Amino acid sequence: MSKLRKLILVLCCTLFLTISLLIVLLYTSLGLRLVTFTLEKTIPGIHIQHVEGTLHKFELDGFHLAMPGVEVNVDKASLSLSGMCLLEAKLCIKNFYTKNVIVNIDTDSIPSSPSPKEPPKTDDSPFMLKTPVVIELKQSYLDSVKVKVDDMNFGLDSFHGSAFWVKDHIIVTEAKSNGVRAIFADTPNTNVEIEQSSNRSIPEQLQQLFSAPLLSHLPEFVIPINVSVLKLTGTDWLLHLVDDYRFNQLTIQGSVIDNKVSLRHVESDILNPYQDAHANVSGTILLAKSWPLNATFNINTLSDKSAATVVKGDIEGDILGLLALNSQVTGRNQFDLKANINFIEKYLPLKIKFGGQHLQWPLIGNADYQLNHFDLQLSGSMEQMSLNSHGSIQATSWPNTVFAVSAKGIKDGIHVEKLSVQLEQGKMAVSGEANWKKKLVWDLKTEFEQLDLTKFITNYPIKLAGKFKTTGWLDKKQHWSVSLSDSLVEGTLRKEPLHMSGDVTVNYAMQPSANHFLLQLGNNKINLNGNMKQSLTAAIDMSALSVFMEGLSGQVKGDLDVSGTLTKPNLNTNIMVNNLAFNELLIKQMSLYGKTTYDQQLSGELALEAKALNYGDSIQAKKIHLTLNGNEQHHSLTIDLNGEPIAGLVTVYGKLNRETGNWTGQLANASLDTPAKKWTLEQPIAVTYNNHQSLIKVGAHCWHNASANLCLTKEATISDKGQADLKLNDFDLAALNLSFANDIKIGGKVSAAANIHWQPKQPFPTIVATVNSNNLNLKPSHSKQPITMPVSLNLNMDDKQALLMWNSDLTQYGNIAGQIKIIDPIAQKKLAGHLTIDNFSLALLSPLLQEQDYVTGLINANLTVGGTLNSPSITGKLTLNQSDIHAKQLPADVQSVFLELTFLGHSSILNGDIKTQQGNINLTGEADWQHLNNWQAKLSAKGQGLNIAMPPMLTMTIIPDITIKATPNAIDLGGRVTIPKALIKVESLPESIVDVSSDEVMLNNQLQEIKPKSLPIRVNSHLLLDIGDDVQIDAFGLNAKLKGQLFVIQSKQGLGLNGQMLIPEGRFHAYGQDLIIKKGELNFAGPVDQPQLNIEAIRNPNLVANNVTAGIRVTGLADKPTVTLFSDPSMSDQEILSYILRGEGLDNGEQSENDMMTAILIGLGTAQSGKYVGHLGEAFGIKDLSLDTQGSGNNSQVVVSGYILPRLQVKYGIGLFDSLATFTLRYRLMPKLYIEAISGLAQSVDLLYQFEF
Question: Which residues, at least 6 apart from 18, have a Cβ–Cβ distance to it below 8 Å?
């Protein structure tokens, strides 16, 4: 009994100690540390940064496992167990959490181990993975898992779920996973060796492939654990297989039991590059025996109901047996597809039926391609197949086409019974057969009727009818032959008649033969006949070249004769071209003669001659003669050019080494007449060209001008990499006859040097260049003294930076210097630089002005440039002061100008003053280019007055108060301009001024209409023009004052005026009479040339009898005025006209009817002849000679007046009815003071003074 007690005691103690040990290990940190220590010591590569808690509940930071080919990193992990579940014989995991799990696996780096010997099988039943206790995972959460296996990437953003594991069955109750990714590399593994079969033909490879079943057996899979997924949801899943396939709103319900996979429900939105859709799939597959498969699917495109496409179908059968597909497509696309295929029989027996009403691509939206009312039936096997199909095809760039095909194929050939194509206009039929048993051989016959291919080739409208037969063959050695026979084609091409007939054959040996093969298009003919063994002749006769290219014209005649063999051909050429024209190129006559043979090497002679060659207005050549003769070892080329702007003679000698591909030559002599005078080659130039390397080398040489040399100082290499050193000495710019502003010539001698290097894939070449001139000058045509300035430029550029430096030391006129640097010109494009202007004197520019004109002033600047090319910044200041301007060409009385422009990085401020006789005009402005594509600028001008004089027509004073705003899109002008005083005097318009016809059309050199160009930037204006009290006009007989306010408005519709202009007083000389303006109104409401007129003018009351008021009233628009006569008292128009022209009525008893008509006609005649009398006076040196009438009634006189001296005016008048003459001399003593002597029936001397009030 005592032994039993002792045994029980020992067992109890052992159990107690075991339980105590388990409690210590599970519920104290000691057990966790022990396990961690054991793992790190026993498994190499494991490192745990930090762990706390117990085995029952712990948290882990920084887990790292490194093994050959495997690396695992876990940022955070935690595990929590439920101890109460142990009482139920279950292992419960309350919570399992991981964050940032990264796994990298390189399968090539994993060491291989010898395969273990298989233990003897004791049981044929499959192995199943079982758990002795129930394991329950109540909650798991995975945050960011990334797995990389070689070049494949897998991962997920988050996973949350719960599961049970009971014996050999895992049940996932509910889970959610987002951001699942499976990305497979686009490029296949290049290390995989593919068996080459280039020595075998494609028919032989197909024969071997299908002579046995494609699938003879499939393995039986037994999955060692059963899995059931009650519900798995997720979104943003990605599968990358060449393209991206995204799955959203995904739901999966299914199971894997033994070797049966069941998908009860799979549903998802699928986004892909082809067509987004919503899919439902269900089915089962047994991974054993014949792999029976049964599945249904339903796919609906993600679009509106009217454009959606629904695909329904099922797959049923055995993969190792007969598999059947049956699907129906409804919606935007409508068709059925039925297919049966047997993978376990040789030659792959199949039967496919595919047909429906409509199929388009893309499946939704606007269709690029459409297949309508189609049916396709394919049956048989790869040994013998039958195809029947019909339907219609539509495409955006393809006309509607109805097709039908019937063909039978065998394993080494095909017989096309019928292939018909019906277009909107015309049809085509093809029949024949092809065989590829030993080599590809074909024999096809093609017929077509009224075939219109215009929609295929829109630039070349073509219609065809006819037939032809084509035969040929192609073997394994790439030897081939193609023949076109029994051809007879008629039609039109670009509305020109087209004809083709005859036979022609071409083979791999390039030995063509032809039997009266004629190709004719309009008046263009090419006739081929013969063969190369004897003579193959091509007769060319073309006189309608515009058929081939619009704008091309001329005549080409001649023949080509080819004989011999491919290895020893002979070619004789005789071509004449007349009146060739294309765009701006014109060639009056051109001929090409040549004889070429090849026997071991190419030899012969070739002569090309062109006469009267013109290219626009830039190139004119009277004659070009090019001759090439010799052989590959010794040949010469001579170019003789007689033309403008270049003429000369060039001779080249060379030889070719066919084996090395090297051509070596010498430019023996050359002389060129250019606009920069004559250039002569000082010594021959050595030139080599390597065809294999595409490399050109040019030896050092110099070209000599009258006073300059242009040299290549070292041998230059030209290929994908190379260099060149150039040098120019004492080149006179005057030889180029350069000018600007029409009459300012550019001259002076310039010297320059440049070193250029380039490398493959180098974005920019490396350039080091200098340009220097000590006497660069500008010389106006009216001045004998040029402006001379020294200039120095230096450029240093490569793909890292570009630096340009300049300097001009003008001695007493100041100095201009600066540099600009672009750092990283490809990517960052940073800018750095500065500009310094030190006391630059404007007096240097005085020679550009007229004699006795001058300008002075000093410009100073110190600017710094920064930023980038896309966002440049400028800081610093630029000033103009101490200026004095005296220029007759300047219409304004500007005396001096002060400007200060301050740059603030991406903005600037302008302040300035313009000093005039009337006072100062203040200038203010600002600009901003922070956003270079949306820059802004503003300028305001406000002042006391500015005198403007454009003698003899205009003198005025203006007071500006205007603002100009500018952006990349528009210029806005606003403000007010006041004109307090002005005198506008126009005696006559130049005779050259002629109104433009409304139907005028401008044409270019090709007689094509030139469309008027709109302004590059829109101009908007809203400017008030205020006309003051002292504005006078003296033009075309009108002497009057003007007053009013006008708004100058410009918009998209054009320029317009709004407002009213008044003529408060004035006179108008017309019909030989002095009319007084009684009322004058011009109302503007739109176009400038369309004012509304309301003007009344009367004859001077002092010159009208009987106190009658008679005048003319003008109303209406300016282009269609209405002129009426009026009087007070009222009377007939004849009576009014008599009072206007004579000052008396028609019933004046003192004058006869003849006298009245004489006075009227003389008055009208003198009014119309003023222009011609003025021209006559100028011929005799008399200024302002005029013919006029004075007086009224019997006192009417004809008066001739003019200035014989600048201050002395002579007048002579003679009465119309009394023949009394009056002679008058008027002399101007000073402005507005005259002395006048009159001699006639009475004599008088008067002193006249003119004043205004």
Answer: none
